[in-house]
Each structure stands twice: as structure tokens, then as C-alpha cells.
Backbone:
């Protein structure tokens, strides 16, 4: 599924993940069975990039993207990117069994009930993820037209060409899950301002949710509780995390809504899938590196939890890679056009 797709034959392209704190760029080359790393890098993002339906400063963001491409020696001019999940409306619809051609007219009407946009203000894409004698399950994704159009314009201002725009949960799933896997996983992507939860059954996304909880909130809570600066709190969070008894209680309290939402997502999945059990929870995103976070979630949820490995399909990963920081950009760079 993608909100925008133009085919450019065998043209080189790279993955661009625009986060609230960092821009991540990855270019890969497909080999017989794996990918070869061509180049990658991480650069600071401009402050406060996005509002709900707009890019606040297209020129500043374009300049930062162009600088990152130059600094990290990305030679491709074509881009595969993703919108922040907090700005995208994703929902799985359950529809009765109707003629396939009728879906094109039925889905927009159904989607209109859950997005705060008029139909002519949003781009809509969908994918049938399951069909049975009872009906269809359809994964729908909608995004504000103004935001998508400004995204395309920003990439053009950076001297690049956007060939595909999709969602981060799809990119994360591509990077983290074994190909043709039939085992379901819960992927938890912890960003700076938001966290997305995605249950993927090996074939398609079965559940997705986004919470306004991220690494910045955790650092703010630590700074307030310990009466220290935000910068000091960031350092403690990243180096000690939940292993530090002085901040463990603060972090555990801040993580309660996230863990509750994870439990709710698992209940939803079990209700719809019956006997199918999740294999494990995979943590990714910059916040996944917090020490002992995997242990806490495993204790609270009761399911094996570990940091995902987006480098599993790359034969020459860098020795000092920050494993979970580049997951989405690697997944975008792995996309088959």
C-alpha cells in the first residue's frame, strides 16, 4: 500500500525517514538474496517540522534534507519516504461481502466516519487484507491532501523526486519481519513525540494505533522528578533507563498508558484471530534503546520482548549502527518498486 507511487524503472532510490528529531537516510543495493549497504546517515531535523495538516517551513526542511543527502554521500535522486504516523489516519474496516468493484465506492463512505477531514481534503488508499464468507477486512490509510502535496513540494525543493510515499508501520514490518513469515508480531515504534503499535501477521497489518507518548515525554518527566535539565534527563534515560532506581518509578508511571494500549491491541487481535498467538514483541525507533525497557514490557505483558533487528537482510551492516534508529529508513530503502 502506498499513498503515492510512480514507477521509474530501475532508477536508484533511497529511503528517507523524517522524524521530529532526526532525518535518517539509507541507500541499499539489491543482491541475489540480501541487500548491500551503499550509504546511510542521520542528521538533525529542523525544529517543529509538522503541524496537523502542514509542513511549517518547507524551505528549511528541504535544505536539511539536501544537506543530509550531501553529507552522507547519498547518490540517488529518487526518494521513498513515509509520513509520520501521528499525521496519518489508519483503520481496519470490516465490510460485508459485496462485489469487489463496489469496494471502491463503499470504502470512502465508511472512512468518512473516522477521519476529521472532508473526502475532498484527503488522499485515501486501501488494501484488502482478508476475505471470507463473512466479508472483507480492509486496511485503510488516509492523509491530508495539503500535507501530502507540501511533502512532494518539499522533496522537489531539495532537488529530489518522490517516487513513493507510504506509512512507517509498513516500512518497519518490511525491515523487521522474516520474509513469508506466518507468525504474528507486535511492533512498537517509539519515536520522540509519538509511539505506534502495529500487529502484523506475516501477510498484512492486522491492528495499528498511535499514542502521543514518546521519548521527549519520558525525559521531561525525569527532569521534573529529579529537578535537572532536560539535557541531563536525556542522557540518564539513554545510558541508565529503567536500570537506574532513581528514575525507574518515574519511567514506569509514564509508560503505563503505552503498556495499557499494547494490552488492548493484543486483546483485539485475539478476539478476531482466535487461537493464533503472537510470537513476540519487537521494539524499534530511537526510544527502543532505553535500557531495560524490553524487560519491563515483557514482565507487564507476559510476552517475549526484544529489540528488532533491521539489519538482518543487509550483508555489510556498519559495526557501530544504532540498530533501532534506522528501522523505518531501511524498510523504505528495501521497498520493491
Residues:
Amino acid at each position: 500500500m502506498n499513498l503515492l507511487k510512480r514507477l521509474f524503472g530501475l532508477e536508484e532510490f533511497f529511503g528517507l525517514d523524517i522524524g521530529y528529531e532526526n532525518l535518517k537516510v539509507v541507500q541499499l543495493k539489491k543482491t541475489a538474496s540480501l541487500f548491500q549497504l551503499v550509504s546511510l546517515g542521520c542528521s538533525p531535523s529542523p525544529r517543529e517540522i509538522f503541524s496537523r495538516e502542514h509542513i511549517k517551513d518547507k524551505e528549511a526542511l528541504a535544505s536539511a534534507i539536501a544537506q543530509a543527502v550531501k553529507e552522507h554521500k547519498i547518490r540517488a535522486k529518487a526518494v521513498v519516504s513515509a509520513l509520520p504516523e501521528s499525521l496519518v489516519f489508519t483503520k481496519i474496516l470490516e465490510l460485508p461481502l459485496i462485489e469487489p468493484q463496489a469496494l471502491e465506492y463503499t470504502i470512502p463512505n465508511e472512512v468518512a466516519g473516522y477521519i476529521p477531514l472532508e473526502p475532498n481534503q484527503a488522499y485515501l488508499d486501501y488494501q484488502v487484507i482478508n476475505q471470507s464468507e463473512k466479508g472483507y477486512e480492509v486496511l485503510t490509510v488516509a492523509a491530508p491532501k495539503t500535507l501530502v502535496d507540501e511533502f512532494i513540494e518539499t522533496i522537489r525543493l531539495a532537488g529530489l523526486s518522490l517516487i513513493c510515499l507510504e506509512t512507517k508501520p509498513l516500512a518497519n514490518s518490511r525491515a523487521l519481519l522474516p520474509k513469508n513469515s506466518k507468525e504474528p508480531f507486535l511492533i512498537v515504534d517509539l519515536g520522540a513525540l509519538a509511539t505506534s503499535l502495529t500487529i502484523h501477521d506475516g501477510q498484512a497489518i492486522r491492528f495499528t494505533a498511535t499514542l502521543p507518548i514518546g521519548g521527549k515525554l519520558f525525559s521531561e518527566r525525569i527532569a521534573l522528578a529529579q529537578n535537572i535539565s532536560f539535557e541531563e534527563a536525556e542522557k540518564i534515560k539513554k545510558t541508565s533507563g529503567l536500570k537506574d532506581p532513581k528514575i525507574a518509578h518515574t519511567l514506569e508511571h509514564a509508560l503505563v498508558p503505552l503498556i495499557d494500549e499494547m494490552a488492548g491491541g493484543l486483546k483485539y487481535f485475539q478476539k478476531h484471530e482466535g487461537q493464533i498467538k503472537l510470537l513476540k514483541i519487537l521494539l524499534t525507533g530511537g526510544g527502543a534503546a532505553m535500557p531495560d525497557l524490553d524487560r519491563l514490557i515483557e514482565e507487564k505483558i507476559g510476552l517475549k520482548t526484544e529489540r528488532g533487528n533491521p539489519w538482518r537482510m543487509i550483508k555489510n551492516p556498519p559495526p557501530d549502527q544504532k540498530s533501532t534508529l534506522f528501522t523505518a529508513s531501511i524498510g523504505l530503502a528495501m521497498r520493491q518498486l
Residues 180-308 form a domain with the Nucleotidyltransferase; domain 5 fold (CATH 3.30.420.40).
